């Protein structure tokens, strides 16, 4: 699921530490409980990786702005705005839909891996992904329309 042996080893260690710090002897379904801990640890790690990638992207963007004279200011601004818009659209989704989109496009997991991770059927993963993308597309179109209205209202330089 993590596609990185080192991350998997670290995660395994964290799971065992979590299990042994808690009163696991009173748990009825130990295997399911441990799997849920592992799942939560995976999701947390993927979120941290996402934040890391965002920071790296910001650093890289600054680097590109300083060193790449090939790109125009307009292009750089549009790339930054697109990234921010994507992030804002993700935040507006319900948590269940956001989880599927994040695991699919940021975590680069397959539909089957997402289904296993979230303990839902593959069909549910597909429908949530479809619904999330539909919502995001609609909001993106609304944002574009607002932007175009503003441009028509105030004109361009």
Automatic annotation (TrEMBL):
Tree of life domain: Bacteria
Name of the protein: RNA polymerase subunit sigma-70
Stored InterPro entries: RNA_pol_sigma-70-like, RNA_pol_sigma-70_dom, RNA_pol_sigma70_r2, RNA_pol_sigma70_r4_t2, RNA_pol_sigma_r2, RNA_pol_sigma_r3/r4-like, WH-like_DNA-bd_sf
UniProt key word Disulfide bond: no
Keyword annotations: Sigma factor, Transcription, Transcription regulation
Keyword Transcription among record annotations: yes
Domain RNA polymerase sigma factor 70 region 4 type: from-to ranges: 85-134
Entry's Gene Ontology BP terms: DNA-templated transcription initiation
